[in-house]
Amino acid sequence: MSDEIENTKESPLVESLLPTTNEDEMKNLMQNLDREQAYREHKCWRQYITVLVSIAFCIFQLYATLSGRIPAQIVRASHLAFVQFLAFLLFPAAKSMPKDTLPLYDVVLAFIGAGCWSYYIVNFEQIVRRAGAYTPLDIAVGIVGIIILFESCRRIVGLPIMIIAGSFILYAFIGKYLPGFLNHRGYKLTRVVSHLYYTTEGIMGTPIGACSTFIFLFILFGAFLEKTGIGQFFIDSCNAIAGGASGGPAKVAVLSSALLGTVSGSSVSNTVGSGSFTIPMMKRLGYRGEFAGAVEAAASTGGQLMPPIMGAAAFLMAESVGLPYITVVKAAIIPALLYFAGIFITVHLEAHKLGLKGLPKEDIPRFLPLFLSRGYMILPLAVIIFFLCSGKTATYSALMGIISIIVIAIAVSFVDVAKGNKPRFTLHDLVQVLCAAARGIISVAIACGMAGIIIGVVTLTGLGLKLGAGLVVLAHGKLFITLLLTMISSIILGMGAPTTANYLITSTITAGAIVNCVYGQVSPTPEQLLPAHMFAFYFGIIADVTPPVALAAIAGAAIAKARPMRTAVNATKLAIGAFIVPYMFIYNPAMLMIGANALSILGITVTALLGMFGISVGLEGYAFARTGFLNNFNVSEKVKKSMSALERLCFLAAGLCCIDPHPATDIFGVILLGILIAMQIFRRRKN
């Protein structure tokens, strides 16, 4: 064990985060890997200020959504004013700074940040009447407001999106000096600032519009769910279902992370939250630390791809392409199923290769008593799904979900009091939920504001079409090369960025290249835009397990006391579906349920699942039986069970053919896979 811990010290970051399942150390791990968790915990009078502001923020948001009487620009500016004020009260200038103090300069920055957007609110009618005739004071306030937004982004969201947004602003000024397709006529300071700060084409554009309405409601909904203890219910339920199977804890990790990811919306927090329970169990059962950490990291990252909630990015995607949210949810079902099927199959094969058993029966909760006692926790999720499927808007569905949680919490508390017990949901819990929601929206809103800057420069200069055309020219018009370049760009842009910022960056910069390559000068419909945005979304998300950054994999490695880079490589192998499936739905949008009937969707799903099985077997090197040719050699039992290189390549080829959307390749892949499986079964019986 000492050697294993020593190997972990290949990274200063990981060295400072040596793992245990202790609650305080898990919290420290979260704060070091996830910027959104590195917030101050105020005491005494400072605590009351942040609590009151957070409550006021939530009440304003609910009133604005329910009443519909406040102009959209006022709602967005007010949203940003609250966010900027709380950002500097809650988040220190550096993660290493004390979390129990509040420097005077942060108080000043909080008031300046909120004041800049309050200036817009107070002078809204005058600014509208002036119709573009901005005063020097308007421009000065806009400059300060943008600078303050950049500083809050540096603290909370990170440098990647800040650097990209800064580069775009610089481009607006110096583009007239650049050669080729990057050249434009150039813009003065007044034009750039007014466009970015005072119009709905910039900071107050579509991303902030979505953030200040239904995204906030879903974050509030998630905060309520977390407070009810639904996370532990998911873990216990998955343990009851899969805990006794071979390699049970790893399968529990896959299932529970898929469920938790729809609520948390963060790869790192999901990995730490469920991994503190599942990773030690996997290691006790016999899984290597690197594999255990990788399973949790890959599954937790994929949780953001799992309907029905999928984090804030899915709402932004629906808003960006102009489709109902339920359409995006339906489109994500088959790709998410294939992603988790790949992980689940690999976990199963690894367990059989190592001869691992499930958990003892006495350690597994019984599903029926568990469901009868705590099954009411999933009702709010069922309510949201029902209303989304009924054609209601995301805002309406989220409100109904929140109302259902409150009703259930009150009912359960009344039952507790009637039984003479302490109520499970109190006024103090409600205050904590509101504070958590206000804190949770900060990073999303700042990312949306920074994305608004990028989008604003794109609309001002026409850069979006130019970038797309430039990438297509670089790929010589070949779709596959364009997709490959887009994949690399999305992974690089997504490294270390929160999910929301991740999608906003990748969709703005790279999705246009795919659309340009496929449709050229023809204006695509929203349904035709969706595959390109989903492609960028997938590869931005998967950056959380892709070396060298791989924040989710590092979190898993720290808990598992494993080597982070080896864990990241294992996680990348487990998440292979996310590297293959996006190519498939670009070539065959029917995988996203676009323009497809039920029969074709069923055929695509079945062949793709067979394909994921073939690929998983090829990567794992084991299916049903040992190869036999190493039996007489002095090697480990695991190596004896590994396939030959040729056999693995055949399984990989069969899997890729099954996933490829063309009928000819499907038929060939199924036949080849059938032959290979028959050989394995025959060999198993012979042995």
Description:
- The N terminus is likely disordered.
- Among the domains are: 190 residues, no CATH class; 91 residues.
- It is 74% helix and 0% strand.
- The chain has 687 residues and is mainly alpha-helical.
- It contains 32 helices and no strands.
Concise structural overview:
The protein has 687 residues and is an all-alpha fold. It has 32 helices and no strands. Among the domains are: 190 residues, no CATH class; 91 residues.
Beta-strand content: under 5%
Mean pLDDT: 83
Return residue spans where pLDDT drops below 50 for at least 5 consecutive residues.
Answer: 1-21, 628-635
The main sheet comes to: none
* Helix content bin: over 70%
End-to-end separation in angstroms reads: 35 Å
Structural class: mainly alpha
Q: Give Rg in angstroms.
A: 26 Å
- Please report the total strand number as a whole number: 0
Number of DSSP helices? 32
Please state the overall shape, judged from the principal axes of the Cα atoms.
globular
Key traits:
single chain, DctM, about 675 residues, about 75% helix
Question: What is this structure's SSE topology?
Answer:
Layout lengths: L1 H7 L3 H4 L7 H11 L10 H24 L4 H19 L13 H19 L1 H7 L5 H21 L2 H16 L14 H9 L8 H23 L1 H13 L5 H17 L2 H19 L3 H14 L8 H11 L3 H30 L12 H8 L4 H11 L4 H25 L8 H35 L1 H12 L4 H16 L4 H21 L6 H16 L9 H10 L3 H11 L1 H12 L10 H23 L16 H4 L4 H15 L3 H24 L1
Helix pairs in contact: 3-14, 3-26, 4-5, 4-11, 4-21, 5-6, 5-21, 6-8, 8-10, 8-21, 9-21, 11-16, 11-20, 11-21, 12-13, 12-18, 13-14, 13-15, 13-17, 14-15, 14-26, 15-17, 15-26, 15-27, 16-17, 16-24, 17-28, 17-29, 19-20, 21-24, 22-24, 23-24, 23-25, 24-25, 25-28, 26-27, 29-31, 29-32, 31-32
